[in-house]
Amino acid sequence: MANVVVIGAQWGDEGKGKITDLLSRSADVVVRYQGGVNAGHTVVVKDQTFKLHLIPSGILYPDTECVIGSGTVIDPKALIGELDKLEALGISSKNLFISNAAHVTMPYHRLIDQASEEKRGQNKIGTTKRGIGPTYADKSERIGLRVVDLLDYGKLREQLEWTIQYKNGILEKLYDLEPLDPDAVISEYIEYAERLRPHVIDSSLHVYRAIRQRKTFCLKEPRVRCWILTTALIPTSPPRIRWLGAPALVLALAPPSLIE
User: Fold this and answer.
1) 101 by DSSP, 3-state: which?
2) Exposed/middle/buried for 6, CB within 10 Å: 0-12, 13-18, 19+?
3) pLDDT, tens digit, 9 for 90 and up, residues 46-97
4) What is the pLDDT of residues 132-172, one digit of tens each?
């Protein structure tokens, strides 16, 4: 099988998840390179039903490596919940790898997403209210938290104390919400970090080595052509890159190395 990038040409719900699942059976590596905790897709294998939101469906096949790439935004609480459900169904997570450069969705991202949608009234965007957009906004503003930052507790505390103070000002003054407790948030995310630590890698290096070993790839784009930020309708488009070379770009690789 040649390397394949699965994208949509319309608004979504085109069956990308089903196609990715079919291709995953023949791929050595499945990469989800952008997006967040979206609506996900349901995969039925024999008598078991799996609901996946962040983890690539290749996780269902023991010989397939699954990579959550640096272009994704990861909600650790949701990801761990998904891992727990898979493990309860007898699915191993030993072949799941998480990019250390992926950005992390925090409690204030979800709160701001939910509150801003409500504040729009009849002009709501229709987000999932899971904090995906605000996480990408912080990434662009260069105040976001990456997976690698979770693993350095001193840096994590230093960064979050300032960021939560900043976000609390927004929550209180703009949305009339209760402020977050920095210590509680930091403690919560330290626990998440320990759970996810065994899966964290340099995804660019991992993918590069797999290419050198002539492994085959299935790369899944979580969204679709009509959601491209620079060409689609505003304000409904999430701030991500949409073109055929995007998987190579967000994985920090030259496009010819991935796309055949």
Assistant:
1) coil
2) buried
3) 777 888 889 988 898 899 999 999 989 999 999 999 999 999 989 999 999 9
4) 999 999 999 999 999 999 999 998 999 999 999 999 999 99
Distance from C-alpha of 225 to C-alpha of 236, rounded to nearest angstrom: 13
Distance CA 75, CA 68 (A): 12
DSSP at 72: B
Percentage of the chain surpassing pLDDT 70?
A: 80
Spatial contact of 126 and 236, defined as CB atoms under 8 Å apart: yes
Which residue is catalytic, options 21, 28, 41, 103? 41
Whole-angstrom distance, CA of residue 180 vs CA of residue 185:
8
CA distances for 169 relative to 2, 175, 206, 245, angstroms: 50, 9, 40, 39
> How would you label 76-105 residue by residue, b for 16+ Cβ within 10 Å and e otherwise?
bbbbeebbeebeeeebebebbbbbbbbbbb
Instruction: Inform me whether the pLDDT recorded for 260 exceeds 80.
Output: no
Buried/exposed 205-244: b ≥16 CB within 10 Å, e otherwise: ebbbebbeeeebbbbbbbbbbbbbeeebeeeebbebbbee
Which tokens sit at 20?
């990715």
The answer to whether residue 109 is catalytic is no
* Location of structure tokens 């609901």: 51
- Mark whether 13 is an active-site residue: yes
Q: Which residues pair with 50 in a beta bridge?
A: 43
Within 8 A by CB and 6+ apart from 112, the residues are 131, 134, 167, 170, 171, 175
Q: Do 218 and 27 form a contact (C-beta atoms < 8 A)?
A: yes
